[in-house]
Amino acid sequence: MTFTANQVAVLINGRIEGNADSAVNGFGRIEEAQTGQLAFLANPKYEDFLYSTKASVIIISDKLELKQQVDATLIRVADPYSAFASLLHHYQEMKTQQMNGVQEPSFICPGVKKGENVFIGAFAYIGEASEIAKNVKIFPGVFIGNNVKIGENTILHPGVKIYHDCIIGKNVTIHAGSVIGGDGFGFAPQADGSFKKVPQIGNVIIEDNVEIGSNATIDRATIGSTIVKAGAKLDNLIQIAHNVEVGNNTVIAAQAGVSGSTKIGNNVMIGGQAGVVGHIQIADGSKINAQSGVSKSIKTPNSAVTGSPAFDYTSALRSQALSRNLPEMEKRLTELENQLKLLLEEKANLSHIS
């Protein structure tokens, strides 16, 4: 697909400097883009590439003052990074809109409700009484169990597994290999030391505008629902246990895990490889640093914690600074002890003489 600078500017509400008819048919990083590609400049440390890049069109800040002549057509916007992200979103939508129909072989159980402009890739399976809304894109190898509901404009990438009774909202993207609705980890210890499985009869609800990365696992509730609320963004390789609630617009980075029945508030940020124990609450706006271990509730909104066990971020940094100084502090303490020892010996000698 080919677009002119003018068409791009209309999509992102930008102002053109240069040739409005300059055409692009692809994207490139500003340091290596070629003729016919579109790039963007958001980080000032890459500004030098603005004057040497071969890109035909570049999105830049409307506040940037040029240091020299630029050969490319410029599109000025308030926020280049957000504008570029919006442009990529439009581009992706145009590509996926071209996909429709049912590829063979695939299996759709009788009675499945299917909306307009749905794409179902080869080797997909859709179970009984499931509902697929309009504009949904189901890539090859996807499994959808019985009585599943998929909302409008949702995209399920290859190999996604949606177990029975789960509900997926509108404009959701789930990347390859993720499993939604597998059994929660529920086992009751027995007197003889064995474990008896507790049936997991709930479901998972993924609300609108959620994105879930590759190979994430979100377990179904024991009773009720495991819920990922609207606007949340989950990275790759994340474990969300049974009956967890993830709040609106919360973001969780890769390899993090949340144990059962924990309630995470809105606009929370959880760093990579962080772990959260079960049956606690995380207040709105909390920030959990990477590799932190959260073992108790965070009750104060907008708190920042780090470490394992996690505690106040600023206090933790002070503790880390002190720990780095421990060798020097030990040396000084030893010197003080030696001086004190000498003073005590001198005092003892004086007392003996007197």
Structure description:
The protein has 354 residues and is of the alpha/beta class. It has three domains: 3-97, MurE/MurF, N-terminal domain (Udp-n-acetylmuramoylalanyl-d-glutamate--2,6- Diaminopimelate Ligase, Chain: A, domain 1); 101-314, UDP N-Acetylglucosamine Acyltransferase, domain 1; 324-353. Helix content is 20%, strand content 28%. The chain is built from five helices and 40 strands. The strands form six sheets. Strands 8-11-14-17-20-25-28-31-34-37-39-40 form a twelve-stranded mixed β-sheet. It has a ten-stranded parallel β-sheet with strand order 9-12-15-18-21-26-29-32-35-38, with no helix packed on it. It has a nine-stranded parallel β-sheet with strand order 10-13-16-19-24-27-30-33-36, with no helix packed on it. β39 and β40 (311-312) form a beta hairpin. The radius of gyration is 29 Å and the shape is flat. The protein starts with a strand and ends with a helix. The model has no long low-confidence stretch (mean pLDDT 93).
Task: Provide a brief overview of the structure.
By secondary structure, the protein is an alpha/beta fold.
- Strand coverage percent: 25-35%
Largest sheet: 12 strands, mixed
What topology, given as strand order, has the largest sheet? 8-11-14-17-20-25-28-31-34-37-39-40
Helix content: 10-25%
The number of domains is 3
Assign the CATH topology of the largest domain. UDP N-Acetylglucosamine Acyltransferase, domain 1
* Beta strand count: 40
CATH-assigned homologous superfamily of the largest domain? Hexapeptide repeat proteins
What is the distance, rounded to the nearest whole angstrom, between the alpha carbons of the first and last residues? 102 Å
- Number of discrete helical segments: 5
Shape type: flat
CATH class of the largest domain: Mainly Beta
Radius of gyration: 29 Å
Structural class: alpha/beta
Uncertain residue ranges: none
pLDDT averaged over residues: 93
- Using the 3D structure, state the CATH architecture of the largest domain: 3 Solenoid
